[in-house]
Write a structure and sequence with these properties.
With 380 residues, the chain is of the alpha+beta class. The chain contains nine helices and 18 strands. A six-stranded mixed sheet has the order 1-2-6-3-7-15. Strands 4-5-17-16 form a four-stranded antiparallel sheet. The protein starts with a helix and ends in a 6-residue tail after the last strand.
């Protein structure tokens, strides 16, 4: 089964649902076993996590690379789990984020399993899209200790190397007003209307106008809003979930301080996840860049990713990590698609990277302390 057919098969599972996620993971496990790849299944909060190993045995001087992917998707309509092909595009939920990349990674694990110079660890996790951002399987795996030198997570990057990703500041905000009868709204103070004004003020705070070398600005999304408890009553309370993706170099604590200056607002819940940064001159990043250049036209670019990913889990453990995925668009949207030809190039690029890595590392002596860091959350 090639990466195209494998991606199509994975996309037929609605892995926003636990039972379908279990079934899809069982399929991946069976596929690996049928291709003579050693794989084990673990449990994290009732969901399956796959860990596979291929290539060289672990040992001194043997470089170890993690290929990391997630099999879960965000919810979609039933018809979006029937993949269709239009020209070079494979369309459907999960095509771009990230079952296309996951399928290619599975093929790569098999492709490089016979070589004995690089050890490959493959992680397939079930909860990258989960709203439970404080307890994820990748964090649990990394916390146990991963003997790895480099990690690649297959998030969509259009065959570029994601060396930076924005941090996450997720807040739940309560806005209070004054209740009165719905027939005389001028006698009250509508908390839902006030909440909308509060969000607009958040969008204009000083932090929102900053930029960096790889990002034009932070992103601010009103993800959820809830208020009111009766049809004939002016609502006196409203809750909002605001999703802020802030830049490397920004301080989440300072952002919170700016938000708290807004009147009639109380932050009742807060979660932060640091931005991800890895040096563009890290030897493994350079080796990946070289591998990509063999299979694409033009020069591979270092890019920043607006969305957060599990790459930060590896970085915080001192393991250089990047995001690298195929070409496509529309992830989390109604017309999500991935380029079929880019899946082939993606598979080739990863294989070329693994096969050329030992020679590359012999030519370039890795620094004693790789130039990488995960930016701290500061005052938050």
């Amino acid at each position: 089964m090639n990466e195209r057919a494998l991606a199509q098969r994975l996309m037929t599972y609605d892995t926003s649902k636990p039972d379908q996620l279990q079934a899809a993971t069982a399929f991946v496990k069976g596929w690996l076993e049928s291709h003579d790849v050693a794989v084990t299944e673990r449990d994290h909060n009732g969901l399956p996590v796959l860990v596979a190993a291929a290539g060289a045995d672990a040992g001194p001087g043997v470089p170890t690379v993690v290929l990391h992917g997630h099999i879960d998707v965000v919810p979609a309509f039933e018809e979006q789990f029937v993949p269709r092909i239009e020209g070079d595009r494979l369309i459907g939920r999960g095509a771009y984020d990230m079952k296309g990349a996951l399928a290619a990674m599975l093929c790569v694990v098999h492709d490089v399993s016979a070589q004995d110079k690089v050890r490959i660890l493959f992680y397939c996790v079930p909860d990258e899209e989960s709203e439970d951002v404080e307890d994820r399987s990748t964090d649990a795996l990394v916390a146990e200790g991963i003997p790895a030198d480099f990690a690649i997570t297959g998030e969509p990057t259009d065959l570029h190397i994601g060396v930076q990703a924005k941090g996450v500041l997720a807040i739940r905000v309560e806005v209070r007003g004054t209740a009165c009868h719905g027939s005389t709204p001028w006698q009250g103070d509508n908390a839902i209307l006030k909440a909308h004004d509060v969000f607009r003020r958040i969008e204009t705070l000083p932090f929102s106008r900053m930029s960096s070398d790889l990002f034009d600005r932070p992103s601010i999304n009103l993800a959820r809003i809830e208020g009111g408890d009766a049809f004939n009553k002016v609502p006196d309370r409203c809750w909002m979930d605001v999703d802020i993706r802030y830049l490397p170099g920004q301080d989440s604590g300072e952002i919170l301080a700016q938000i708290r200056q807004i009147r009639d607002l109380e932050i009742i819940k807060c979660f932060t996840r640091s931005p991800a940064i890895v040096s563009r001159t890290n030897p493994y990043v350079l080796a990946l860049r070289d591998g990509i250049s063999r299979s694409i036209d033009g020069e591979p670019l270092s890019v920043g990713r607006d969305g957060a990913s599990d790459a930060i889990s590896f970085l915080e453990a001192g393991i250089p990590a990047v995001e690298f995925g195929p070409i496509g668009a529309g992830h989390h949207g109604p017309e999500e698609w991935v380029s079929l030809s880019s899946l082939t190039r993606y598979r080739q690029a990863l294989g070329d990277f693994v096969r050329a890595l030992p020679t590359w590392l012999e030519q370039i002596e890795p620094p004693a302390n790789p130039d990488l860091r995960a930016v701290d959350g500061g005052l938050a």
